[in-house]
Amino acid sequence: MNAGSVGTGVPRVGGRERVNGSQQFLADIRLEDMLHVKLVTLDVACARIDSIDTSIAVHLPGVACIVTPADLPQPMPRFGPVYRDRPFLADGATTYHGEPVCAVVAESRDMAEAAAEAVLVGYTEVPGVFTIDAALAQDAPLVQSPSLRPDDPLARSNVLRERRYEWGAIDETDTTVVDHVYSFPMVTHFAIEPHGAIAHADDDGLTIWSPVQHPYLLQRTISDLFEQPLARVRVLAPDPGGAFGGKQNPKFEPLLTWIALKTGRPCRLILTLEETFQAVRRTSCSIHVRSGFRANGELVFHDVESDFLVGAYADIAERVVAKANYLACGPYRTPNARIVARAIFSNTTPSCAFRGFGTPQVAWAIESQMDAASRLLQLDGLEIRRANLARFGEDVVPGDVPADGEWQQSLDRAAEMIGWGRPPLEGRGRGIAVAIKAGATTGLSQATVRLLFDGSVIVYAGTSDMGQGARTIFAQIAADEFGVTVNDVSVVSGDTAIVPFDLQTSASRSTVFMGNAILAACEDVHRQLRSLAAEITGLEAADVEIKGGQVHVKGEQHSIATVLERGLGRLRGELVGNGTVRRADDPDHPLGGAPAFYEFNCTAFEVSVDGETGEVLIHRHVTVGDVGRALNPLQVTMQDEGAAIMGLGHSLMEQLLLDDRGRIRNLGALDYRIPTTKDMPLELESEVIENGDGPGPRGSKGVSEGAILCTAPALAAAVADATGVVIRDLPLTPERVWSALKAGVAR
User: Is domain 31-126+195-270 in CATH 3.90.1170.50, yes or no?
Assistant: First the structure.
């Protein structure tokens, strides 16, 4: 392969359209004769629905119909990526604040909104559980009916599932024990584009437009619910305006499809930002950690009890709990461990995947615990990590994939960048933290590559480009395989009727899984090229080599375009290749399969704290990731910086606030704080370590989540270093920091 474009920061495919506003998002799509849907909700979390009076609303101008639970098939259809527990509409009662109780369908959005306000819902508020303690209380109301889990021994509790991982034996002999509890708040994704979908039913079948991350999962869900063959369900997935895990799985598409079938017209639902806040969030949690250390800082054991509040429906949250807690001990040599992790139902917004997939929560606890140990043992926070960090090839979970990178290089580089060896300026403090996240454990990605007569290329890939720049990477890979420029490659995605199957777009897996599938498809085309060149020259295919985007035959070098022109002749045509990467399930593995790679990051801060206000000023923010190989360094930097800034949100300010009745009090952009330009670090630096030791093309690993994994513990350590005050509850709001400073003791 020639030097080509891989490894260079070529401009992002589709970037110009995103900047100039010409990209078509879901809300920009207009279909002829389209109806608009508005959901009716209650300003209450838990209520028994006594009546729904639509008599006034249904007769308002422009109203096509109003769908209530009574109109739907009985029993109420339910769906979900793992557990089929989510109903199309609230089934007899609302189970969280904002759960839809009916849907108004009208000729315009304004008409639908006006009619929704005229729907009168009679209800009786009932008790709910909104915290971990309340959900686990002996007399707690059940969030879900036991009938939804008929064979589950936990069905008469609010525990969805309990996971246990254990190795070695916990022995506190001759150890210093560190024992603390850490809490992580509810936060929302706050994607710029709210959730929405369009559904249409006609003689050709069902068509769904949705900015979903997993188009084929949505296709399967609709196929199952409406008993249609997959071939008659088409999902068109326009690029989302942000997703971060919140758009992985179906939410309202099944209801919208049912309405489209009922009305015979295309139907569109676009949520407001406030409604989106009520639709998705990250899992919140409380994590109790007991850890044992030798006097020299050697880690002896971690004993972890994790309680994750997943919300009213399961979605994918139990997988979040399982996968994150499997690596709860972090990237360290941990000879003894006991991890008990529970996914707990509550009458709150259902949680789902969120960038980092549970790792920021467990890293907050474990890395804070490492700092607590360093203070207790009077050791340096960097040195205690350096002493325990797993080296390449050493176990992090015994018997599983060992450390797959020279992680100490990231740690040492971040320490160097933050100036760890130099005394900080007066009033400043420094903190450092590390974390790993497991890449995808199973998967199936398929790609098709068409090499056209003129040497240009079309790549078909089912991966959603949700901001990570997947199409750019795929174009770079194909361009180098055929000796053309990125501008000579077109990447097609987002249509299940056109592109081959891809299991999912998540877990930082696209470059590794789909990238390798594209390489395999290119090799399939290369095989055909070798045969074509052999046919032209009268030689054997074994005498032909394709290297650096050129065809080499017995010492002669030809361009691929020349071979195509001579071989295909005046009839023209093209060569088509297919590639598949499959990572099968492993039923004997606790996660169903070993991680394909680890995403490792080291983050460091230098901060000062205003003692009068509790405000944290970030002077320097450093993030270093182990990426294997940066196929597009510019995009890696963009992803790292985006993840780092996103991590500042849950570390400093973001939290969904509930009242004692479970209602979200800070819906929308005015009352829910996210980082703005005024909250940015004075300096933000990101670097990567490249050793070519990953399973993806050119030795790459997944990126884009690393810089969010350990933001919070590194920042909290810096605050503690600057003030002497330790805080174990996120976020580190000025009020919380100020209160801790005034109390003058660790909290």
Answer: yes
The average confidence (pLDDT) of the chain is 95
Dist. CA 594–CA 327, nearest whole Å: 12
The set of residues, in sequence order, having a beta carbon less than 8 Å from that of 115 and lying 6+ positions away, is 38, 57, 58, 60, 62, 63, 66, 104, 106
pLDDT, tens digit, 9 for 90 and up, residues 307-350: 999 999 999 999 999 999 999 999 999 999 999 999 999 999 99
590 exposed, middle or buried (CB, 10 Å; 0-12, 13-18, 19+)? middle
Contact yes or no for 470/505 (Cβ under 8 A)? yes
Domain with CATH 3.30.365.10 in the chain: 15-22+443-583, 284-440+590-743
Contact 397, 167 (CB under 8 A): yes
| Percent of the chain whose predicted confidence (pLDDT) is above 90 | 86
**In the predicted structure, residue 629 carries a pLDDT above the cut 50:** yes
Q: CA nearest 418: which of 646, 618, 193?
A: 618
pLDDT of res. 2:
46
What number of H helices and E strands is found in the chain?
17, 28
CA distance 154 to 162: 9
CATH architecture assignment, domain 284-440+590-743:
2-Layer Sandwich (3.30)
Domain 15-22+443-583 has CATH 3.30.365.10: yes
pTM over 0.85: yes
Reading across the β-sheet that carries 550-553, which strands appear in turn? 544-547, 550-553, 556-559
Q: Is 206 helix (H, G, I), strand (E, B) or coil?
A: strand
Residue 509 has pLDDT above 90, yes or no: no
Specify the domain boundaries for CATH 3.90.1170.50 within the chain: 31-126+195-270
